[in-house]
């Protein structure tokens, strides 16, 4: 398969990564929870590993320098054909570029930015590394959702930067928008108003598929993480919102269908 065939359409979520203080214990946690194995990734950004499931890359985990006290959070990367142009558009549309554009070895070129509401996301211009190579199986990222105050203004930002088509849920009390590319839903925006966590602010949430949501939530606790929202039924399936031992929030889901 050629690179042209595997490179994601711009705007498609293509990778998730996590920066932590303790690389080894974090690997142990996710290996026990999702069955991930690890191999070293590009060293240009410091100690970094790629998580594998049956030999296919699914996520990245890096180690923060000891003096960097950044929020520990999973970062969603959206595909781009031109990281430099995307960085310019982000600035022009009211976002902030925090890192890059810079090369990650021969893997690709990246930008880490925040939208006008402060939610951090990445943009990834693939070269040797296309991104997540397997989807749908337990242990893989299956959905990405922006949790924000309201969707209308920030929705226009993502639409301008990545060319999404927006499809809103028409409801008086539910502020929810699905973002589409070429008619296909790829991610969503969820406006939660004053329910937005003050300590986290607006943020992208990664959903990881699991075989059994209740079992996964119990396992998170056993492994030193926390359950923030116990297992419950949603339209997408049975979900639970949890954190790893360093506090990175993510959602586990047993998808319906």
Automatic annotation (TrEMBL):
<dbReference type="InterPro" id="IPR037523">
    <property type="entry name" value="VOC_core"/>
</dbReference>
<protein>
    <submittedName>
        <fullName>VOC family protein</fullName>
    </submittedName>
</protein>
<dbReference type="InterPro" id="IPR029068">
    <property type="entry name" value="Glyas_Bleomycin-R_OHBP_Dase"/>
</dbReference>
<feature type="domain" description="VOC">
    <location>
        <begin position="140"/>
        <end position="255"/>
    </location>
</feature>
<feature type="domain" description="VOC">
    <location>
        <begin position="12"/>
        <end position="126"/>
    </location>
</feature>
<dbReference type="InterPro" id="IPR052164">
    <property type="entry name" value="Anthracycline_SecMetBiosynth"/>
</dbReference>
<dbReference type="Pfam" id="PF18029">
    <property type="entry name" value="Glyoxalase_6"/>
</dbReference>
<dbReference type="InterPro" id="IPR041581">
    <property type="entry name" value="Glyoxalase_6"/>
</dbReference>
